[in-house]
Amino acid sequence: MVIxxxxxxxxxxxxxxxxxxxxxxxxxxxxxxxxxxxxxxxAFEVKLSPTIHxxxxxxxxxxxxxxxxxxxxxxxxxxGRDDTPDPITGHINYRNIDxxxxxxxxxxx
Length: 109
What we know:
- By secondary structure, the protein is α/β, with parallel strands linked by helices.
- The chain has a single domain (2-104), classed as Trna Endonuclease, Chain: A, domain 1, CATH 3.40.1350.
- Helices cover 26% and strands 28% of the residues.
- It contains three helices and five strands; from the N terminus they run αβββαββα.
- α2 (58-66) links the parallel β3 and β4 (71-78).
- α1 (2-12) packs across α3 (97-104).
- It is globular and about 35 Å long.
- The protein starts with a helix and ends in a 5-residue tail after the last helix.
């Protein structure tokens, strides 16, 4: 559902299809990676949990170590009530994803 909302946002705002996922041979996986075309990446893990667990960030931290100079944002998207906008250990409620994407992609068209 979250990935589809991101795809709809990109399409409806005339933005490039720049949504990817990451998985390597070591089974490290990131659910959503947005490449803004300006040599920066934004990585997201999608979790169906209202509470945040430190393990949710494990693959995001791994991704950041691989692409440390390119990754500008890594967050968890979950079903919790609160948003924490920290660019490294933040999380956002999936219900706020459209507003968040609008802010994230402002000026990209």
